[in-house]
């Protein structure tokens, strides 16, 4: 059985418990991948994992096929904060409790039933899955309080591959190197300038702008794009300009400094659980997993819509095409 809770507490209210790292190192990267990922996400690299997965989701907008579907649903345009919170919570439930727990299994089932309403090519699923594997590695290497160990990288790969299997994906590459090679071909086919990609990216940036006072709203886009300034293909796909070199260096340097300052200390909740995180859509974290779905699907699934409903059939995108190009 997977043990999904530990009694670890910060030492003197500020310093991480050394047993967390020792426990991770002693676990099996395949059989215990759920527990390793949870320990990293709740104790050792909580803030870093959150930022990495946010960037992973944003990177999916580089695909014309993915963005065309997202743009047609209108969910990010009309209900951006809800889509952000729903995605964060659904992923958070199986990260926190494991895929066989009641909450984790329910969250995966909710994701699968949502996806069943659309025609989504397997390659698109694989691309999105790859971002969840890749971006925690990228973030930990540059900005986190420490890089992930080879043991942790292997566990992360095994964790997300199993999630992919439970989502019904086929032809999942067997190794990270093989996955990377597949993605290079995918990007050549799908990372192309597309109005849908630009629109969904702008809609998502507006969500972040909504969290800030007006003098800072204008910084959201250049800060985010500074983290992708070495990926010309992605920037072109979403119609973004490369930020000035000095600005990107300032953003990256600030994040590296932030990671360095957190090397030996832990601020905030320890462990960090979903119940401890702010929730703008569901104040006080009062929600059911069944609510975590697009507004336009509430009508399709027989519920009273909580927002402006759309037409589920109009939301279905032809595979691999950008009608706005």
Can you put this structure into words, describing what you see?
It is a single chain. By secondary structure, the chain is an all-alpha fold. The chain is 58% helix and 0% strand. The chain has helices spanning 18-26, 33-44, 46-59, 64-73, 75-78, 80-97, 102-115, 122-142, 150-166, 176-190, 195-209, 214-217, 220-226, 232-237, 245-261, 295-300. The protein is globular. The chain starts with 17 loop residues before the first helix and ends in a 25-residue tail after the last helix. The model is unreliable at 305-325 (pLDDT under 50).
Annotation keywords:
16 helices; mainly alpha; disordered C terminus; about 325 residues
Short structural description:
By secondary structure, the protein is mostly helical.
Kindly state the number of beta strands.
0
Report the β-strand fraction as a percent range.
under 5%
- Class from helix and strand fractions: mainly alpha
Specify the overall morphology.
globular
Q: pLDDT under 50 segments (min length 5)?
A: 305-325
Distance between the ends: 50 Å
**Mean of all residue-level pLDDT scores:** 90
Please give the share of residues in helix: 55-70%
Number of helical stretches of at least 4 residues: 16
Order of helices and strands: HHHHHHHHHHHHHHHH
Give the biggest beta sheet: none
Rg is 19 Å
């Amino acid at each position: 059985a997977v043990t999904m809770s530990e009694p670890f507490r910060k030492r003197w209210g500020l310093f991480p418990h050394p047993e967390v790292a020792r426990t991770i190192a002693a676990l099996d990267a395949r059989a215990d991948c759920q527990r390793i990922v949870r320990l990293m996400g709740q104790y050792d690299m909580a803030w870093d994992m959150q930022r990495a997965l946010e960037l992973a989701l944003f990177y999916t907008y580089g695909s014309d096929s993915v963005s065309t579907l997202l743009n047609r649903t209108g969910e990010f345009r009309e209900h951006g904060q809800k889509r952000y919170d729903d995605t964060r919570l659904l992923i958070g439930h199986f990260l926190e409790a494991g895929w066989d727990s009641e909450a984790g299994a329910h969250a995966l089932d909710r994701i699968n039933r949502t996806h069943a309403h659309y025609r989504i090519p397997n390659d698109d699923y694989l691309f999105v899955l790859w971002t969840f594997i890749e971006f925690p590695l990228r973030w930990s290497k540059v900005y986190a309080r420490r890089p992930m160990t080879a043991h942790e990288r292997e566990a992360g790969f095994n964790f997300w591959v199993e999630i992919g299997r439970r989502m019904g994906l086929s032809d999942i590459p067997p190794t990270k190197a093989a996955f990377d090679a597949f993605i290079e071909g995918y990007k050549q086919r799908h990372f192309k300038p597309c109005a849908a990609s630009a629109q969904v990216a702008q809609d998502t940036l507006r969500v972040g702008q909504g969290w800030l006072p007006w003098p800072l709203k204008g910084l959201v886009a250049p800060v985010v794009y500074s983290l992708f300034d070495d990926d010309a293909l992605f920037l072109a796909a979403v119609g973004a300009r490369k930020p000035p070199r000095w600005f990107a260096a300032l953003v990256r340097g600030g994040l590296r400094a932030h990671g360095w300052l957190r090397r030996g200390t832990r601020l905030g909740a320890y462990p960090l659980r979903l119940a401890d995180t702010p929730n703008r859509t569901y104040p006080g974290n009062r929600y059911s997993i069944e609510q975590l779905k697009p507004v336009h699907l509430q009508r399709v699934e027989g519920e009273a819509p909580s927002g402006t409903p759309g037409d589920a059939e109009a939301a279905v995108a032809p595979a691999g095409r950008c009608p706005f190009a």
